[in-house]
């Protein structure tokens, strides 16, 4: 377990609807102004909630990504609390732009942008028994990585043994489309920031020390996060 100084004892952890129109004819005006105007009318008439508006907007960020090696499907945004959608927020920090801060208590990951701003992503985080805090850094990165279950996981879940030599990258791979591997003092912590295609997991504690973002969010974060990027995990 990692202490408040950020050290890890690997042996102590088990790793790893449009508005009502007066005419049935949809004229060109409707198509020009599109869903934004329609949803605005819904909200004013009391037919759409703020959450409906947020989800309609978020659908643009969380749509399908067909050009990937393994095409990524759209996220069912109805399954996510809108507070977890990607957003630029006010965030005062003395950390350098690019720094990643993980807030497991609130299920957020922040990327510092500077000038009092950060990109905030909804996340899944570690289960209580695997919680840790401290400083780390991105030691390496991978696209559609191979996943190899740690020996401790195989001991707990023998069915994972069939992947002892590695599970090829793909949509069913637990690490997903992109992964950032976290290191301390030159050593891999067994913890990652990884991609998930499971919207139900966002805002929950489900991992063994790792932090998961929706695949579309990882596609946003990954290219802006070079190796050696500082990562701070706040106390849960």
UniProtKB/TrEMBL annotation:
Family annotation (Pfam families): YkuD (PF03734)
Domain (L,D-TPase catalytic): give its ranges. Answer: 99-233
List the CDD domains: YkuD_like
Its cellular-component GO annotations read: extracellular region
Cite the annotated pathway: Cell wall biogenesis; peptidoglycan biosynthesis
Q: Which GO terms describe its biological process?
A: cell wall organization; peptidoglycan-protein cross-linking; regulation of cell shape
Keyword annotations for this protein, in alphabetical order, are:
Cell shape, Cell wall biogenesis/degradation, Glycosyltransferase, Hydrolase, Lipoprotein, Peptidoglycan synthesis, Transferase
Note the superkingdom of the native organism.
Bacteria
Q: Does the keyword Glycosyltransferase apply?
A: yes
The UniProt similarity line reads:
Belongs to the YkuD family.
**PANTHER family per UniProt:** L,D-TRANSPEPTIDASE, L,D-TRANSPEPTIDASE ERFK_SRFK-RELATED
Can you say what this protein is called?
Answer: Lipoprotein-anchoring transpeptidase ErfK/SrfK
Task: Give the source species.
Answer: Roseiarcus fermentans
